[in-house]
Amino acid sequence: MVAKIFILAFLNVALAQELDQLDELIDHLSKNYGSKIGLLTPSNYASVKRILPDGVKPVYVEHEQDLTKMVLNGSIVAALVSGLPEKKYHDALHIFSSNLVTMHSFLMAPDLSTDYPHGNSENLSTYHLSLAINAAQSKMQLKGIDLQLAIKNAPKQLIQAHTCKEDDQTQFAVPNKREAVGLLRDILDSQEIRVLAQGPADWGINDGNYLLDPPVGFYPDFLEAVVDEFKNLSGPDKELYGQIKIRRIFSNKSPFPWYYLFNGTAHLTEPYFILDAPYAGSGKPCTRDDQCLETETGYEKCTGYCRHASRPRYIMLRSSCTSLGTDSKFYTKRNSRESGGSSNSGLVVLIVLLVVFVAGLAGLLKYQELLETFK
Ligand SMILES: *[C@@H]1O[C@H](CO)[C@@H](O)[C@H](O)[C@H]1NC(C)=O
Ligand SMILES: *[C@@H]1O[C@H](CO)[C@@H](O)[C@H](O)[C@H]1NC(C)=O
Ligand SMILES: *[C@@H]1O[C@H](CO)[C@@H](O)[C@H](O)[C@H]1NC(C)=O
Ligand SMILES: *[C@@H]1O[C@H](CO)[C@@H](O)[C@H](O)[C@H]1NC(C)=O
User: Fold this and answer.
1) How many CB atoms lie within 10 A of CB 69?
2) Residue 238: how many CB atoms within 10 A of its CB?
3) What is the atom index within ligand 4 of the atom nearest the CA of 123?
């Protein structure tokens, strides 16, 4: 009887194994083929896929709270986010780094050239826009506003992974307001910047809850801070760019409608887009190949949507200087009650049980007391 209790208790501890470190999680995933990992977008998966063992099943969930609930109710083993879950869940979770830095940036269509036969031209050109966005973003970063926003929207861990130096503002000589062409012209004339966005979704009030109007969190604040700098830009003639409103063009479509960047529906994307994710075509609905964009290997293939072989985003699109880096985090359910929750806790419980078991055998404890130990 006592032995049976011991075995049950042992199994309980063994099953409630704490996955609180990357190597333990990877080990668990490789031993449990078909384990499910929850993510917000396929891009999040693409950026960490290389460190996951074969047979892991990605599950895409739109809102971060549902992701957390699924970790807590055991329907997925772990979640992976490029931010952090909301503070209120931290006591119930183990949160640990994937040791991979994910780079984020504003993405635009490239301009037409021999390298970019699918690019934009004339009034859709993005060259002037990219100069202005890079100038505005680097001014904001130089003031340290991105860090302030991370603190304001804590918990938000920001990794300053920048592809452009911020301390030399002459690098982004922006065009005069009167001489601006392409999509920058359209923004200045319409006093509106149309931003292609994923969602609307709730990624937590710390990262961004876009279900609220106006949205709250780090990413909405980040975009606003860049646009605030954008309004104050001027070319050599000192004429200010002036008032500009943000209009988000949300999409949850799969494939993602990148063609909005190519046909003028949106000027650029949100700053949170993952740079090291694949791009597999403009995603335009179509019935024939020749309705699609022309690329260096001919038209994209029409399979209901315009698609082509996956390429790195930075090769097919124009990226701004990187906005930020994030340390993608895994989180798993915390089973142990102590807040420390180290991986040794299971071992400690086992040792205590063993002592109790031996003591029980030796008749040092009454059976009743033994049962209470296992409650
Ligand atoms: C776990 O939570 C998710 C999100 O709330 C829910 O959709 C799912 O049905 C739950 N699964 C179980 C096994 O309780
Ligand atoms: C833009 O310029 C105005 C007027 O000089 C100033 O009040 C405002 O703080 C500036 N905004 C930013 C983001 O620098
Ligand atoms: C771009 O595509 C969208 C969706 O198909 C369409 O509504 C819009 O009119 C197009 N814009 C231009 C400028 O062609
Ligand atoms: C670009 O020019 C075309 C043709 O002149 C026009 O239909 C389109 O609306 C313009 N697009 C933008 C974004 O200004």
Assistant:
1) 15
2) 8
3) 1
Cβ atoms of 373 and 132 within 8 Å: the answer is: no
Say whether domain 20-101+330-343 belongs to CATH 3.40.190.
yes
Ligand 3 and 265: CB distance under 6 A: yes
Cα of 166 from ligand 2 centre, angstroms: 18
CB of 69 shorter than 6 A to ligand 1 = yes
pTM greater than 0.70: yes
Among residues 283, 24, 268, which one has the least CA distance to residue 126?
A: 268
DSSP for 286-304, please give it.
Answer: -SSGGGS-EETTEEPEESS
Q: Looking at the CA of 76, name the nearest ligand.
A: 1
Report domain extents, the chain. Answer: 1-18+344-375, 20-101+330-343, 102-323
Confidence class of residue 340 from pLDDT cuts 50, 70 and 90? very low
Specify the 3-state DSSP secondary structure of 306. Answer: strand
- Tokens matching residue 191: 């006093």
**What strands, in cross-sheet order, belong to the sheet with 93-105?**
57-60, 36-39, 78-81, 324-333, 93-105, 273-274
CA of 184 to the centre of ligand 4 (A): 13
Tell me the two tokens of residue 123. 């009034």
Residue-wise pLDDT tens digits, 179-215: 999 999 999 999 999 999 999 999 999 999 999 999 9
Q: Is the dihedral of CA 173, 174, 180, 181 positive or negative?
A: positive
| pLDDT tens per residue across span 292-313 | 999 888 899 999 999 999 999 9
CB of 66 shorter than 6 A to ligand 1 = yes
Whether residue 117 has its Cβ less than 6 Å from ligand 4: no
Atom from ligand 3 closest to the CA of residue 284: 5
